[in-house]
């Protein structure tokens, strides 16, 4: 967010109308508007710093502009460590096989903005690739067998849920 300390004090497009309300776990400053994320899912992933391989793959597959689009999108985003778990040479091979790479990446995207509270109520979700990915909650939350390790990372055009493995269409 952008903080402007001149009078009136603003946070992005919102004016701070009351300050320093003490709570047990922090301090509240009341604002007069809702602040929405400015960055799309690609920018959010880039700023996180742990999705370099995913972003390289998105670029190679020609999906950057798509994921910068209006959406909304729910992205189950594998970390760099998730890609590193793949057998040696897999990522390099996929970067050369753009049609296959594109299908795998689109299998990680679900149309719509599905927050964690909605995802845990699903048993499957239809992906942008066309197939449905299985969701289970019996042993933590898993999507396509990958553990969801962080949820509800907001973006202007959707939400990111971080996963610990690359999921593959069947």
Task: Describe what this molecule looks like in 3D.
This protein is an alpha+beta fold. Helices cover 27% and strands 32% of the residues. It has helices at residues 41-48, 52-60, 64-67, 80-84, 90-96, 98-106, 116-119, and strands at residues 3-4, 10-11, 14-23, 26-31, 73-78, 109-111, 124-126, 132-136, 142-143, 146-155, 158-163. The protein has a seven-stranded mixed β-sheet with strand order 6-5-11-10-9-8-7. It has a four-stranded antiparallel β-sheet with strand order 1-2-3-4, with no helix packed on it. A hairpin with a 2-residue loop joins β3 (14-23) and β4. α2 (52-60) crosses α6 (98-106). It is elongated, with a radius of gyration of 19 Å. The relative contact order is 0.17. The model has no long low-confidence stretch (mean pLDDT 95).
In short:
By secondary structure, the chain is α+β, with helices and mostly antiparallel strands.
Radius of gyration: 19 Å
Low-confidence segments, ≥5 residues, pLDDT <50?
none
Give the % helix. Answer: 25-40%
Q: In terms of structural class, how would the helical and strand content be classed?
A: alpha+beta
Per DSSP, what share of the residues sits in E-state strands of 2 or more residues?
25-35%
User: SSE string, helix = H, strand = E?
Assistant: EEEEHHHEHHHEHEEEEE
Q: What kind of sheet is the major sheet?
A: 7 strands, mixed
What is the β-strand count?
11
Please report the distance between the alpha carbons of the first and last residues. Answer: 41 Å
Q: How would you describe the shape?
A: elongated
Overall average residue pLDDT? 95
Number of helices: 7
**Largest sheet strand order:** 6-5-11-10-9-8-7
